[in-house]
Amino acid sequence: MEQSSLVLRSLRYLESDRVVTFFSREEGVLTGFARGAAGISSRFGASLEPLTLSSVIGRFHLEGTLYRIHKAAILNPFTYIKSDLDRCYWAGMGVRLLTGLLPPALPEPLVFDIAVDYLESLSDTAASPSFAWIRFATCVLDLLGYQIRADDCIACRDTPRGKILFYYPMDGRVLCSLCRENIGETEEGLKVEVEVLRFLEWIGSKKVAKVQGDVPTVGRSVEFLDRILSCRVKDWKAVDSLPIHIG
Length: 247
Ligand SMILES: [Zn+2]
Prior knowledge:
single chain; alpha+beta; 5-stranded mixed barrel; 3-stranded antiparallel beta sheet; 8 helices; binds zinc ion
């Protein structure tokens, strides 16, 4: 079966083969064996390079065995991303988020479309990578059931008082600092500014094409998403620990 797939990882195996992890639109994240695909000078090898959108043909030969990749052809090589170190890092964060959040072989076509959209944004010289990242991470979290909402405080039902709220990433609850003290909530929660939650809610709810928030909000949103992802993805390394420019 031919399927549109994003290559996430690719490891050389012995002399001439590769083990490739790819995100297929129809079948989810799969790991497959590609015989004779080790050389990137070959077309087959080039189509199985990480951060490449390819049409992949293959199948499971026997139940419970490794997927076999028979053929692959490049649909979009994302050459610009691969030529720019900063954009490579941002794209790599996307790969880590997908491999960290998606179980194997579970079809997630909408997440797939957002992932392709993310790489297309990173290929656009005029688009801000950090904004593309915020939109991608927020939309993926939303689709997987971890929507970020700037709701009123769940205890006093009041519009957030003060600038600081506490966000509980495991269930999405929001508490104001006063109620948090009053009800004696012992769990730490994530401290977050109201404007950051509103910014993320707005991005998650719409197809936003261009950055509207100011740069400090973008930077703090990247930080906040990092803290949410640290709760969700094993061994998550913060974006702002990477040598990239936020803004
Ligand atoms: Zn409250």
